[in-house]
UniProtKB/TrEMBL annotation:
The protein, known as: glucan endo-1,3-beta-D-glucosidase
Entry-linked SUPFAM superfamilies: (Trans)glycosidases
Pfam families, sorted: Glyco_hydro_17
Protein origin, superkingdom: Eukaryota
Biological-process GO terms, alphabetical: carbohydrate metabolic process; defense response
Enzyme class: hydrolase
InterPro entries: GH, Glyco_hydro_17, Glyco_hydro_17_plant
Signal peptide stretch: 1-26
Gene source species: Solanum tuberosum (Potato)
One GO term describing the cellular component: plasma membrane
Length: 416
């Protein structure tokens, strides 16, 4: 047979990727697949994009049937989600079981759904009703999994803002907000009993944006820098994200839980922002996400947990043009809607120009009457806002980004 003079460029690119990039991606990389847009590629065209960056895990903000079907038999693991607006309904065991049956069981085992995230950043909305409904909803969904004999393969969790911390520096002194300790303790006890992970959304970008004159850009971008030393543990930190993760480990230990699996359910950096959004540039986004992916590939743990693999979901797969808020909200994607890279990622480009113009939220799950649809949570719609908290994420995290001599002043000023 005559050799093809014009080999398929996508196949060639994927071959190069397998030869040169796959060996370094030995730890599981996760990616958040948000769909608050009307110009994204069809889910079937997203599969090669996900594979091109070596991602083996996807977190959805709903349970979009089109996505779950497109990724069938790919081996990619999924976290599917239930929005905050459905917590009260999920307390009803019959509704929870209907939702699990229609939005999880229906796609197993072809699509590898391994976790259900119930709510997003609920505790920092300071909404008593939401908070009161969170754990009962999680318990109800878990009971549904038990009844359907799925609890051994699918776990139940919820994602928290890092603003649930009252103290965040030094990392060894990490502690939860006093008003949340009781609620967090009950949730962590649920994790321990069911074997599910504790999810945290962590954004070093917020801190740099809040105080660019005092925050070391190299420290937040995983670039070479002198770092900081925890005065209590003597551990050295050369990047902010690791300090944040270890502050969570310390907070969990302070309430009696030293061996909980902590995963970073969101972290990322915007490639574009408004005039007052310092650091939101393509170059900074490239450094943050590419350096982060290298760290994940090296299976490098944090100073406090050096032998534990990083479990991190990068935010996000695409720029999403319908997200409200400042410009940065619409520019966290590794990819543009046409499938081109938002900035150089160090992996081959993949064509994914075919779009699904009717998709604006990823909803549309198969449902029975009176069962809430799988929908993007209100918490996801404003990831850079304070989400109604009395203590903003920027204020909570500022302690990481200043030199050691200044942190006590900030601690007093912000009452952390």
């Amino acid at each position: 047979m005559e050799p093809n003079p014009n080999p398929n460029p996508i196949s060639s690119s994927l071959l190069l990727f397998l030869l040169f990039f796959t060996p370094t991606m030995v730890a599981p990389l996760g990616i958040n697949y948000g769909q608050i847009a009307n110009n994204l590629p069809l889910p079937e065209n997203v599969v090669p994009l996900v594979k091109s960056i070596g991602a083996t895990r996807i977190k959805l903000y709903d349970a979009d049937p089109h996505v779950l079907k497109a990724f069938a038999n790919t081996g990619v693991e999924f976290i599917v989600s239930l929005g905050n607006e459905y917590l009260s309904k999920m307390k009803d065991p019959s509704k929870a079981q209907s939702w699990v049956k229609n939005n999880v069981q229906a796609y197993l085992p072809a699509t590898k759904i391994t976790c259900i995230a119930v709510g997003n950043e609920v505790l920092t909305f300071n909404d008593t009703i939401l908070t009161d409904n969170l754990l009962p909803a999680m318990q109800s969904v878990h009971t549904a999994l038990v009844n359907l004999k799925l609890d051994k393969q699918v776990t139940v969790t919820t994602a928290h803002s890092l603003a649930i911390l009252q103290t965040s520096y030094p990392p060894s002194a990490g502690a939860f907000r006093r008003d949340l300790v009781n609620c967090v303790t009950q949730i962590v006890d649920f994790h321990c009993k069911t074997g599910s992970p504790f999810l945290i959304n962590a954004y070093p970008y917020f801190a740099y944006k809040g105080n660019p004159k005092q925050v070391s850009l190299d420290f937040v971008l995983f670039q070479p820098n002198s770092g900081i030393v925890d005065p209590e543990s003597n551990l050295h930190y050369d990047n902010m994200l690791f300090a944040q993760i270890d502050a969570v480990h310390s907070a969990l230990a302070s309430i009696g839980y030293k061996n909980v699996c902590v995963q970073i359910s969101e972290t990322g950096w915007p490639s574009k922002g408004d005039a007052d959004e310092a650091g939101a540039t393509p170059e900074n986004a490239r450094k943050y996400n590419c350096n982060l992916m290298k760290l994940i590939g090296q299976k490098k743990g944090t100073p406090m947990r050096p032998n534990s693999d990083l479990n991190i979901y990068v935010f996000a797969l695409f720029n999403e043009n319908l997200k409200p808020g400042p410009s940065s909200e619409r520019n966290y994607g590794l990819f543009k809607p046409d499938g081109s890279q938002a900035y150089p990622l160090g992996v081959p480009a993949i064509n994914a120009v075919s779009t699904n113009s009717s998709n604006s939220g990823g909803s549309g799950s198969t449902l029975s009457a009176s069962v809430p649809p799988a929908s993007s949570s209100s918490g996801y719609l404003a990831i850079t806002s304070d989400s109604g908290t009395s203590l903003s994420p920027c204020k909570t995290l500022l302690l990481y980004f200043v030199s050691f001599g200044l942190w006590k002043k900030l601690d007093n000023y912000y009452h952390l």
